[in-house]
Amino acid sequence: MESMALHLETAYERLYRWTQAECRLLTGDSLEVSPLLCQAMSALQDRPVLFRYSLDEYGTARRTAVVRGFIDALTRGGASGTPRPIEMHSHDPLRYVGDMLAWLHQATASEKEYLQAVLKMVPDDCVEEPMTEVLGHITEGVCRPFKVRVEHVLVAEPGPVILYKLANLLNFYHHTIGSILQGSASLLATTEDMHQLSKKLFMNSLNCHSSKLMEKVELPPADLGPTAALTQTMALLREILSSYDSSVVPLDARRTDFTEMCAMSASQLNPADMATYMVNCLYMMKTTLSLFEFTDQRLEMVSAQVDAHLDTLVNEQASFTLSHVGLAHMYSVVQQHQPREGPLSAVHGLDRNSIKTAMKHFDAFLASPDDLVLPQCKFLLSATLRDVVDKRSMDVIRQVYGQLYNAVTDSANKYEDPKEIMQRTPQQIRQLLS
Question: Can you give the pTM of this predicted structure?
Answer without folding.
Answer: 0.64
